[in-house]
Structures are given as C-alpha cells and as structure tokens.
Request: fold
Amino acid sequence: MSLNHVRPWRNIYRRKSRQIMVGDVAIGGDAPIAVQTMTNTLTTDVAATVAQVQAAAEAGADIVRVSVPDEASSKALKEIVRESPVPIVADIHFHYKRGIEAAEAGAACLRINPGNIGDEKRVQEVIKAARDHNCSIRIGVNAGSLEKHLLEKYGEPCPEAMVESGLEHIRILKDNDFHNFKISVKASDVFLSAAAYQGIAEATDAPIHLGITEAGGLVSGTIKSAIGLGNLLWMGIGDTIRVSLSADPVEEVKVGYEILKSLGLRHRGVNIISCPSCARQGFDVIKTVEALEQRLEHIKTPMSLSIIGCVVNGPGEALMTDVGFTGGGAGSGMVYLAGKASHKMSNDQMIDHIVEQVEKKAAELDAAAEAAE
Ligand code: SF4
Reply:
C-alpha cells in the first residue's frame, strides 16, 4: 500500500498525456511507465532474435524494438512477432516500404520519422498501412539526425531545434488524421535531452518515450540514464523508457526497472537493501548479495529484502522490509520477517534459508493480491 499521503515528499505528479496502445500495452495516461529495449541480433536470424526478445520479456520488458533495415528483415519480422510474448516495435529509417511491410507483418508500432521517408504520397502510404493494421507510430527525433533546414536555422542541435522537428513530424501525422502516436527527442547529452524533453512535454499531449541515446557502456550508460531519465521522470515526464547501453538488452531492462523502482514508479521483483559492509560485518555481505541477486532473479512479486552486515543498521532497515537478515556474532545472524526479529540462522545456511523465506513471502503476497482482485 502506498503511504504517500503521509509522505508527500515522495509524490511525483505525472504530466497528463493521452493514452495510446502499443499492441496490448497502454502507453500514457495513467498506464504504468513501460520499459522497452531493443534487440541487437540480426533480424534475419529469427531464432536468435526471438531468444533475445524472450530473455528481455522474462527480465520485465513490456515492449521490444527490432531493426528492419531490408526486405528480408521485414519477412523475418512476421515470424518474430508471432513468437514474441510482448508487442514488437519496428525500427524504420528512410525506406517507406519497410514501414508498410512492418505494419503488414504485425508490428505493434513503427519507430519512424515521417519527414525522413520521402514525399507526401509515400508518407500517406505508411500512415495508411499503420492505420489498417492497428499499428501505432513513434516519432523518434534524434539530435544526431536533425533535418538540414533546422541545423541551418539553429546552427547546431539544440532543444528548440529538436522540439521544432518533433512538432513538424506531429503535424504531418495530424494532417493525415493519425493520432495513434508517441514521441521521443533523444540526445546523448543529458542537458540537451532534458531540455528538449521538457520543451516537447509542454508543446504536446502525446505520450512521451524517454531515452538518453548512445548512453555508453553498462556503468557509464547506467549513470547517464539514471541522471537524465531520473530527473525527467521525477518531474513527471515520460510514459515509456528505454535505457540505451552498449550491453545485453537484458541489462537495459534491469537498469530501466531500477530507475523506475528508485522513484517508486514501478515495482517488480525483490528490492534488495544492503549495506556496503565494513570491518563490523558478521558475514560476507558482498558475496551474499551477489548470490542472492542471482538466486532471486525468478521472483517477479514486488517485495523488499534487507541484507545488513551488523546491528548498527540491520534492525532499523529490517523494520521496513518484508524479509531481512542482520549479521551478528559467532557465525550466525538474525532473520526478520515483516519487520520483526523472528529467529537466528547460521551464516553458512543463510542464503538457502533467505531464498526459501523470500519465495514463501512472494507466494503469500501473490495469493493476497489474487484474493483482492
Ligand atoms: S551496517 Fe554494519 S557492517 Fe554494514 S556498513 Fe554499516 S557498520 Fe558496516
């Protein structure tokens, strides 16, 4: 249960956007902020791409994007869509025919810039295909590929140029009476992204897809994304997110969820609260947390677990978590259940025991949630 009414400093007031559907996933309005990632396999390698989509979905991805650079990829897309447990977004650049083929292949959304795919007739054909196949569109403005006339007008990629580009693309869709779209204004620079997103958030009620593009490797990209996306989400901007990392798509999903979890915007799986450890630790906190993260990956129920090295902070943290363990003396520590000290457990059996306790608690929470429905 949310206690934000007694903790108003935790409230985030989301920008009001209209809602669209990407397949069966609602984006915008009061829908949960969706987590996306993108495959990096060859789309024509259907087995590898489907395996990556499934792994991302298993990690919690609500939607997965797949590149469609050529006709063979459009053909493969049909099979990928059929096998995928989540809606598929087709990433299209320049070739209007790929957009039509992707909509026909069952893509739930086309990531496309209507201004980049040729003359008006071609744009209309893509929009018609999207409409005929109940396919939404994401306008994907990127600081690295702004239109020439905007670069000439503004001199360099800047927030105003990105917003203007986005609004031009929106106008094309609206002129064609197409409203089933969302928009992103990505840049690799955190300041540029944040300013552009704030500008577009004020200028339209379309749902917003957030991302810091080409953010970097796992550590640096995670930090950049957490700062950029975190600030925007905190301001209430953003209806779906993608963390772009030079890393496995599963890592992108995990990082995306952690950002949303940190802000209390979504909850999934076990939120582990652990101390950094020091000479006072009663057991090896770092190794234990590493092992528990792996052993508890299968738990999807939102819940909390505190793993704290000693009594300095252990009992206090355990008060606020579903399951807790605090290191003590003589090779054992205290297990906490629902915030209360429950029983002692030896350090060498503690990992198996905590996994059991978490699984038991998850089953209880699931049963309670089911009964409440
Ligand atoms: S909780 Fe205890 S073991 Fe962990 S960092 Fe603090 S003092 Fe050290």
Notes: The chain has a mean pLDDT of 94. Residues 275-278, 280-281, 308-310, 312-313 surround iron/sulfur cluster (CB under 6 Å).
